[in-house]
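subagent[fold] <- orchestrator: predict structure for attached chain, return tokens only, no commentary.
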Amino acid sequence: MKRLHVSALVGLTLLLSGCGTTSTTSSPLVDTGTIYPLTLDRAVNVRFLSTGALTLDDSTEVPPAFGDVQRFGMFETIPQHVDHSFQTIRLLRMIYLPTPDDSLNLECSTSVDGRTWTEYRQIQPDALLLQLSTPASWIRFRGTLLATTTEKSPELRMFGVSFP
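subagent[fold] -> orchestrator:
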């Protein structure tokens, strides 16, 4: 399976499998099996470690909606176009949680045209496949990191998708 790695230089990097090339100007040109940057569109209280893992920064500002946690962070990626429609997404990820009460929740949203998007759908921690109800050719991701201590943080060490 191809993987999406986290890179300290360019942000999240996606290795797509099962696609050819794109010709859209709002997304990088993608060749099958080529690594390209999956750029963060919006990020709050997150940073990249020298290892490339995405983690929380040192901020301790937490919105009340997240309850009794010590640190909070979130990110969204820019939309990425795949040159064919897909209804199944194969997932691979490596997440580090320092305590059982910490969390790193991932969600995805899809689109047929890159303009009208589905609601974000949570990706279950143990899910290997995500089946969509309708075909799509665009995808974007969102993540929320929550830490119960100020000493250690959840980390997104690797994330990958393919379209079987």
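orchestrator: received. Logging for downstream: Residues 1-36 have pLDDT under 50 and may be disordered. Residues 5-162 form a domain with the Jelly Rolls fold (CATH 2.60.120).
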